[in-house]
Design a protein that fits this description.
Layout (H helix, E strand, L loop, with lengths): L1 H7 L8 E4 L1 H5 L9 H13 L4 E7 L11 H7 L7 E6 L2 H9 L4 E7 L2 H8 L3 H6 L2 H10 L2 E7 L12 H13 L4 E6 L6 H14 L4 E6 L6 H10 L4 E4 L19 H10 L8 H15 L6 H5 L2 H7 L1
Parallel strand pairs: 1-2, 1-8, 2-3, 3-4, 4-5, 5-6, 6-7, 7-8
Helix pairs in contact: 3-4, 3-13, 10-11, 12-13
């Protein structure tokens, strides 16, 4: 009886916001380098399918991530849809200046919560990395640009294991100090579990009530959607996802694909949680992406179809 009463008190959200990160996080780990025209097509089809936030690429050094070397041209040539936020990842002031020159008004800065991961990749502590973003924050304020921040390896690191929550808070505080008010907890290595996600989300919302929170999950160990549900129960409304479940991080050993956009949208549709997307269009986009990259992906819906497809067959 007690279990039934508790079940009746669960409050699922009426709607969530899903950011399509495929053009950046999905493609950055692919061996196939897509031409500018195909990248533009993917971005524009995502917008036509209902995406209101699209991460179009990253303005980083081409030697570091060659898959993103043409982001300047992609950003300049995409047909923008009113009401859609086109954002890009940057790592320094030069990247932010390039983004602005290409017409991007929203940039994401990222730092690792893991000291081991951060020192191994860029020889700086996470706090040093974020404090180095102060120039970006000053530039953005002067030029009317928006910034968001992402804390990678928030739930675990393949080099260090469990990342202490106090360390995550330390990095978040550094972002907050430079004025960033949209922050993402990112499970780069796919090590998060639902209980951890729920607890972290409740704690950070209490610590930073003026911040808009985003969750970014990889499905490395099959817990991506369960972690989304934990985030929902904690009151978080924004989630990153990637068409066809592509992805991975070139700087995080063992990281696999993101949660698939179509899997997340299908779950929400079954739960009557609005996303504003056309699921069929996203599924079509996912099939197209698998064709052009030339290999299978970890999307469940692309393999099995929607629940409603089974009903129609009967």
């Amino acid at each position: 009886m007690q279990q039934c009463e508790n079940a009746n008190t669960i409050k699922w959200p009426d709607n969530i916001i899903v950011c399509e990160v495929g053009p950046r996080d999905g493609l950055q780990n692919e061996k196939v380098l897509l031409p500018v025209e195909q990248k533009i097509e993917l971005i524009e089809r995502a917008a036509q399918a209902g995406a209101k936030i699209i991460e179009i690429g990253s303005f980083v050094h081409p030697k570091a991530v060659p898959q993103m070397a043409d982001t300047d041209e992609v950003a300049k040539r995409i047909s923008r849809v009113d009401g859609v936020e086109y954002r890009a990842l940057v790592m320094n002031l030069r990247g932010l200046e390039r983004a602005e020159a290409a017409g991007i008004r929203k940039a994401k800065l990222t730092a690792s919560a893991s000291r081991t991961h951060s020192l191994a990749n860029i020889n700086k502590t996470p706090e040093e990395v974020v404090r180095g973003f102060a120039k970006c924050a000053e530039y953005a304020a002067v030029h009317g640009l928006e910034l968001s921040g992402a804390v990678s390896t928030s739930f675990g690191c393949s080099l260090e294991g469990q990342v202490d929550f106090g360390q995550v808070l330390s990095v978040l505080r550094c972002f907050h100090e430079i004025g960033v008010r949209e922050l993402s907890l990112s499970d780069t290595t796919g090590m998060a579990n639902p209980q951890q996600v729920y607890e972290y989300c409740m704690k950070v919302q209490a610590e930073f009530p003026d911040v808009t929170w985003v969750l970014h999950f990889h499905n490395t160990r099959g817990m991506g959607l369960a972690n989304v549900m934990a985030g929902m129960l904690a009151g978080v409304k924004r989630y990153d996802a990637c068409f066809a479940g592509l992805g991975g991080c070139p700087f995080a050993p063992g990281a696999s694909g993101n949660i698939a956009t179509e899997d997340l949208l299908h779950m929400c549709q079954e739960m009557r949680i609005a996303t504003g997307y056309d699921l069929d269009k996203i599924i079509s986009l996912g099939h197209y992406i698998r064709k052009i990259i030339g290999h299978d992906t970890d999307s469940f819906v692309l393999k099995a179809g929607k629940n409603s497809d089974i009903v129609k067959q009967k």
